[in-house]
């Protein structure tokens, strides 16, 4: 069925409003506020003490989530966000976890203020659940948010919010990644803000409605309590902070943090020349069987102290599960603003958002209407938005002699989804997302290589679970997890290497596991380079059926490559849902980071070291970097000069003008 | 002013030149890289990082496009895109 807008859905398509307007629309609610002079009058010492305390509270929220959650995605991989917001829902601080998530919570809080004040009302001890990305709070339905108002003397002083990736909230496919889905009705049902905690107690009716949809309701119930706990801890700490310093002082610091972030980003933008930077990010395939390629285009304009992100020209929304909402688009911008422009500026998105405008046409792949499919939004169109913003901001920064050091080429072009489901070795049903691609290759810098398997710039604290934790928790056995040769984008400075994992189903009492695969970047690379640097390598996933892996293991041999295995080999399409049998082997290879500058300008000694460390193959050393190596691995200078001359001549030969 | 690793503004304030050989590449008002050499090849020309033939995954032709300095042949820009798409990458610096 084609995508047809649903009447009434516009209520949930939140468009950000100024705080003054949110205050007007917050019917029936008293919001704590101070005047501008109060924010300016705070003394520097108190400001720094309270500011750092707020940062510590956001970090403590993250610690609480990790301690209480039962999901490896949260406890070991840090795929969650924690935020403290002011009374109008502007984000004062985000923790160093998933900044995509934290950057979109403001929308959900503002929507709640504007729509829930009278019915059912917002009272002390209440908390609201939301996983509707049109409202905000997360980028796809798996991003389930719990947000809590903090009351002081009968007024809403501020909000705290915790959001985690939940491993399964229903939908056609396990993990809620419906690879054959065509619209949102194939996916987990988005839930706009509902009061799930009332007066400090979980509402059983709402919890039942929430958990009923999941294949792993007990785990989801535990994560729900982890998020409630994180909010409780934050609220206890904030209340003590208010008791110690006064509500007026704490609020003054919160406002000042946002003002400081805004002023300092504006000052940095003023140091950069005015101009326009344009780029494009591609994604191949939006659902199983789809063989098209889609684009997100961006013209970023910098004028004086302001940025405009204009996405005009982006492709229309598509049947599939890879569109994203406005929350995803904003979630794609903010991680780059934070990491490239705000390394020395407080991470207060409420202030930073004031420094830029967004132009985007509703009904496009990164600002889609209901009911376009968004089950993969966070790591599809939101991620691609991040890629294109990364390119434009990086190219802008490259002009400035000092700020250019903060640019980074595009990191790991997309998420490599491998989702397992079935019965674990203890006989319990399970669903999990293998988060190994959290170790993506970082983009190259202007003066150094990207960090190999260093992570993702949208989750500064992201990490991979130990192989042993995955094997202990789920019925799988790794043959290897390692960095992959030639996966980092070649350049004068090389993009960080991506990696691969290879595993088999192991020890499930019913045999095998169910597998859902989704990863683009196979038809074309998604982590672009800058200044002539080459993009990272493409995504590559392979499924081997009916192999001899068990015989090899029984004989004491651990396969070191796919060539060591017998069986039938399928290079996988972008999306697949299938069953892995006990003799099957799954190999998944995620992307590295883009390179910076011409590979022929790379120091040949660095190339030789890369070959020695198996970051770069001898073939790439010769054909891409033009570096000839002697038998002992050292650089053959004369042969290298000749090889580079030949490669330059080839460039002239293939030129069309 | 250097625009990136390879391109800078000439002393005349309008021409863009190659950092490595001083060849004039274009003009900031009419096209910063209009004198650059351009090529379009199969994406496999990027080397072993392209793990499989794009035809396995899409019906659209995927190509590698590059721009080079006409004198020293330094690569100035690299992208892998569908061949039926026009160029979307570029920059203009006003001040």
Greatest chain-chain interface? A-B, 70 and 50 residues
| Radius of gyration of chain B, whole Å | 15 Å
Summarize the biggest pleated sheet of chain B.
3 strands, antiparallel
Radius of gyration of chain A using CA atoms only? 25 Å
**Helix percentage range of chain A:** 25-40%
| Biggest sheet layout of chain A | 7 strands, antiparallel
How many distinct domains of chain B?
1
Assembly state? heterodimer
Query: SSE string of chain B, helix = H, strand = E?
Result: EEEEEEE
The first-to-last residue Cα distance of chain B is 10 Å
Q: What's the N-to-C terminus distance of chain A?
A: 47 Å
Quick structural summary:
Chain A is of the alpha+beta class and 657 residues long. Chain A has three domains: 23-263, no CATH class; 408-597, no CATH class; 602-654, no CATH class.
Give structural notes.
The complex is a heterodimer of chains A (657) and B (95). Helices cover 32% and strands 19% of the residues of chain A. With 657 residues, chain A is an alpha+beta fold. Chain A has 3 domains: 23-263, no CATH class; 408-597, no CATH class; 602-654, no CATH class. In chain A, the strands form 4 sheets. Chain A has a 7-stranded antiparallel beta sheet, with helices on both faces. In chain A, helix 1 (19-25) packs parallel to helix 6 and helix 3 (44-68) packs antiparallel against helix 9 (217-245). Chain A starts with 18 loop residues before the first helix and ends with a helix. Chain B has 95 residues and is mainly β. Chain B has one domain. In chain B, 0% of the residues lie in helices and 38% in strands. In chain B, strands 1-2-3 form a 3-stranded antiparallel beta sheet, with no helix packed on it. A 3-stranded antiparallel beta sheet of chain B has the order 4-5-6, with no helix packed on it. In chain B, a hairpin with a 5-residue loop joins strand 1 (7-9) and strand 2. The radius of gyration of chain B is 15 Å and the shape is elongated. Strand 8 (275-284) of chain A pairs antiparallel with strand 7 of chain B, so a sheet runs across the interface.
